[in-house]
Please model this.
Amino acid sequence: MGDLRPFGIVCRPLRFYVLSPTSSSLGQRVLSFKQTKGVVLEMLIPEDRLRSRIEALAREVSEGEGLGALTLVGVLKGSIHFLSAFALALQRVHPDEVSLEFMWASSYGEGKVSSGEVRIVQDLRDSLGGRRVLIVEDIVDSGGTLRALRARLESLSPRSLKVVSMLVKPDAVREDVPIEYRGFDIPNDFVVGYGLDYGERFRNLPYIATLHESVPLP
Model:
C-alpha cells in the first residue's frame, strides 16, 4: 500500500463506491449517506493504517522532543479525530504532561479549492509563553493556513514551535513552511474522512478517501 519515505508514507488509492441509500451492488462496499447521490470515493488510507501510523508518529514525536511537557494546539475542525487519537497515543509513550489548546482557522469555506485567504475564526485563550508547542494539523495543502498559524503562534513567545500533520500534499505545497512531523504524503487530490469534510459532510468516516463528483457508476 505504500513505501516508507524520509518524511512520511506515500499512499496509493483503492477504489470503491458510495452509492445512494436505495442502491446496492454485489461485491461493492456500500456506504449510505442521505446526501450522497452517486458520489465516488477512492479508499486512500484505511482505518487500521491510520491507527498504526498515529501510534508510530506519537513515538517519533516523544523521542524527537525528549523530556518535558508538551502543548498540542489542534486546528479545528479538521484535526479533531487526529488530535484526539494522537494525544492519547502520545500520552501513552511520553513521560511528561501533554496539554491541549484549540484554534479554528479556515481557507476552504464550502468548496474543494482553498481560497488562499486564511481566517482565524477562534484564537487561543491562554498564553503560550515558555511552552513547547506542537501545531496539530489534519492536512497541509498549499501551506497558506499553516504559515498564518505559525506566524500567529510565534507572536505568543513559545519556547519552541513545531508542526505535526496527519497528511501532507507535497505537490500542492507553495509556502516554505517547516513540517517537522508528518504522517502520510498523499497525491494532490481532494480527500475526506477522519475529520476532513466536504461541505461539512464525511467528517466521521473512520478512514481517508479521495472524493470524486459526477463520476458515472458502473
Notes: Confidence is low (pLDDT under 50) at residues 1-7, 13-37.
